């Protein structure tokens, strides 16, 4: 019988669901972590950062930096060579004087004056540098590679190239501007490059001058080899640019440039013509027609970033890896506890939410988080591993269900029960109608049969039994010996589930106890309603899928009471309350062994019950329930005399005579 006294919470300290979740999390994190250590991580610099800039769009730079462009148009207007290093230096002297007179806080020349030129021009430029006292001239760092005879690279040696002495001594300071290049472009600059002896770079020098002038506190990485990530503003021309020729023309006319007052001015190559660009770098804002951002624009970006405190805070190294692992674990937990379709939709929503959060962090807080791994790599890896594990677990569950209910070639019960366990593979609590059935006198029937004959008898019985249950929406979930347990999961229609279970029981009763024929055996039925745990029981690989709970036990007790009352079908009041009164006949409240609360029961098979008998029995039962025992005794005795084959009347007559069978108006069944 179904005397399960199992407390599911005590089966295992750690449920199988969480063991499977832990397995999926570990496998997913290992998979994503291994990919993180490959060149795929470079996608964060190329595709990821480009996507963040694309979603954020162009950002207006602060009003602190202006560029004076050494471009081809200026060369044409001034009648000088296209190469700016060949321009007469008297022009640069006039430019410095004009910028200084216009109120420029600091001037940076991103042009290397390595060789001496015309002496008069050099002297004019040196004099202008001294008058201004705020000009930073560019240095250059050249790396010489040392190879062995076999061609193996042994070392690299950096050489600092400074302007020639006359100009270097006349300038405020000299400093380099170094941009670490990658295959995906440039993303940062050195604040204190080691190749320059750990001295400040040109953007740092110019920013310090600007910050001092405006009373700002300088704040940037100040150690040798330190870098800052560039927070770009947009494509070429986003930072304000003034043509070199236009500026000189205004200075020669005695006009100042108010647009440079109190600002840092960078003089350097800024060429919009892609074919003429040779001091340009690929960035996320490089245009499809090949126009990159010039070095002087990147220097201006570095200064503007420091001025407004907007340098990118890149999540890299261990912090980025930890974020990716935590996000992977989150996706893995979702794939473990939810059905595949729900997990897929949840992953899409989660990835979209992550993308929105990442763009928000990038836009508002200037944080550069990983994007490609959380939004693409991790979901693919987790989904792949999750689907594989779900398939593996589903195959094992299907195998156990087949052991429970047979091959079920129609797929009905297997499909329904499989779907019920999809969201919680280890099992779930459901509200259901339980139909407990037991073959009457099976032991005596099987006595003398060979095991194979007994098996054939049961198989023929199940071939008649199962289709009736399944055609009414139920599932046979347990088979022990000659007893079966069937479930109707309530869902949103408790009344409908109860009626379907009753109709199935009535049809089974008609088939097994009235019509007979091949494959039929006399059977008793008991129905009850309540919460049931349905899922896997066992330890390790010894797992079975079973219904468990007090409702299952009670349904079995109700079925056992049929034998006591001499009827084929009984149902608890929780089930019969949804039936019309004329379809049931109450038989009293019964307290079963091990139960403290009585269970009101009713007969369901009324086809052979005369209307007068039903009426008189219910009247006698009312007396019994009211504890009018003598009056009830007389009424049951009269019914027994008139209908001697009606067992319920004989039982209650005995209960009236034997006090041990009753407790007030409740029948006490200590053996059922």
Shape: rod-shaped
| Residues in helix, % | 40-55%
| Largest sheet: number of strands, sense, barrel closure | 10 strands, mixed
Are there runs of 5+ residues with pLDDT below 50, and where?
1-14, 403-414, 538-543
Chain-averaged pLDDT: 84
Strand content: 15-25%
Report the structural category: alpha/beta
Number of helices: 21
Q: Termini distance?
A: 11 Å
How many strands? 25
**Radius of gyration from the alpha-carbon trace, in angstroms:** 44 Å
Describe what you observe in this structure.
The protein is an alpha/beta fold. It has 21 helices and 25 strands. The strands form six sheets. Strands 16, 17, 18, 19, 20, 21, 22, 23, 24 and 25 form a ten-stranded mixed beta sheet that branches. Strands 1, 2, 3, 4, 5, 10 and 11 form a seven-stranded mixed beta sheet that branches. Strand 3 and strand 4 (153-161) form a beta hairpin. The longest helix is centred in the middle third of the chain and has 34 residues, at 372-405. The relative contact order is 0.09.
């Amino acid at each position: 019988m179904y005397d399960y006294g199992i407390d599911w919470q005590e089966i295992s300290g750690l449920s199988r669901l969480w063991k499977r979740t832990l397995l999926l999390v570990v496998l997913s994190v290992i998979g994503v972590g291994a990919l993180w250590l490959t060149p795929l991580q470079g996608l964060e610099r190329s595709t990821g950062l480009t996507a963040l800039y694309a979603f954020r769009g162009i950002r207006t730079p602060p009003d602190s930096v202006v560029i004076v462009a050494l471009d081809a148009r200026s060369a044409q207007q001034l009648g000088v060579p296209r190469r700016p290093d060949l321009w007469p230096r008297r022009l640069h002297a006039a430019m410095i004087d004009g910028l200084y007179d216009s109120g420029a806080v600091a001037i940076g020349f991103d042009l290397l004056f390595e060789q001496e030129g015309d002496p008069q021009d050099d002297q004019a430029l040196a004099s202008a540098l001294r008058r201004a006292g705020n000009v930073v001239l560019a240095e250059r760092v050249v790396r010489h590679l040392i190879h062995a005879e076999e061609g193996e690279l042994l070392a690299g040696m950096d050489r600092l190239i400074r302007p020639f002495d006359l100009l270097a001594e006349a300038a405020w300071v000299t400093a380099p501007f170094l941009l670490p290049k990658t295959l995906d472009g440039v993303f940062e600059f050195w604040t204190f490059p080691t190749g320059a002896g750990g001295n400040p770079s040109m953007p740092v020098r110019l920013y310090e001058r600007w910050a001092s002038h405006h009373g700002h506190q300088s704040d940037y990485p100040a150690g040798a080899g330190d870098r800052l990530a560039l927070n770009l503003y947009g494509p070429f021309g986003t930072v304000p640019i003034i043509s070199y020729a236009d500026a000189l023309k205004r200075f020669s006319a005695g006009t100042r440039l108010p647009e440079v007052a109190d600002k840092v001015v960078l003089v350097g190559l800024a060429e919009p013509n892609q074919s003429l660009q040779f001091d340009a770098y690929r960035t996320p804002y490089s245009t499809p027609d090949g126009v990159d951002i010039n070095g002087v624009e990147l220097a201006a970006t570095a200064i503007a970033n420091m001025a407004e405190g907007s340098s990118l805070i890149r999540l890299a190294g261990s912090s980025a890896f930890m974020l990716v692992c935590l996000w992977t674990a989150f996706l893995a937990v979702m794939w473990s506890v939810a059905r595949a379709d729900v997990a897929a939709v949840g992953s899409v929503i989660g990835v979209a939410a992550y993308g929105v959060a990442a763009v928000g962090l990038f836009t508002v807080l200037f944080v550069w988080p990983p994007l490609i791994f959380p939004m693409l790599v991790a979901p693919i890896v987790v989904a792949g591993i999750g689907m594989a594990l779900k398939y593996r677990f589903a195959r094992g569950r299907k195998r156990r269900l087949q052991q429970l209910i047979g091959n079920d070639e129609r797929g009905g019960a297997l499909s329904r029960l499989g779907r019920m366990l999809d969201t919680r593979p280890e099992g779930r609590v459901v509200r259901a109608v339980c139909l407990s059935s037991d073959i009457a006198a099976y032991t005596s029937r099987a006595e003398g049969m060979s095991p194979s004959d007994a098996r054939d008898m049961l198989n023929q019985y199940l071939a008649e039994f199962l289709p009736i249950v399944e055609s009414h929406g139920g599932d046979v979930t347990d088979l022990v010996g000659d007893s079966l347990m069937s479930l109707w999961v309530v869902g949103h229609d408790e009344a409908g589930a109860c009626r379907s279970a009753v109709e199935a029981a009535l049809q089974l009763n008609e088939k097994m106890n009235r019509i007979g024929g091949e494959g039929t055996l006399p059977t008793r039925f008991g129905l009850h309603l309540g919460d049931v745990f349905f899922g896997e029981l066992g330890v390790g690989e010894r797992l079975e899928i079973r219904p468990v709970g007090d409702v299952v036990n009670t349904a079995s007790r109700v079925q056992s009471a049929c034998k006591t009352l001499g009827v084929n079908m009984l149902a608890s009041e929780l089930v019969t309350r949804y039936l019309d009164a004329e379809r049931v006949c109450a038989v009293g409240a019964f307290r079963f062994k091990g139960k403290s609360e009585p269970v009101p029961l009713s007969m369901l098979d009324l086809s052979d019950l005369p209307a007068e008998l039903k009426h008189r029995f219910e009247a006698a039962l009312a007396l019994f329930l009211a504890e009018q025992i003598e009056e009830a005794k007389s009424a049951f005795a009269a019914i027994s005399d008139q209908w001697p084959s009606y067992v319920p009347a004989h039982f209650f007559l005995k209960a009236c005579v034997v006090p041990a069978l009753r407790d007030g108006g409740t029948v006490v069944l200590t053996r059922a």
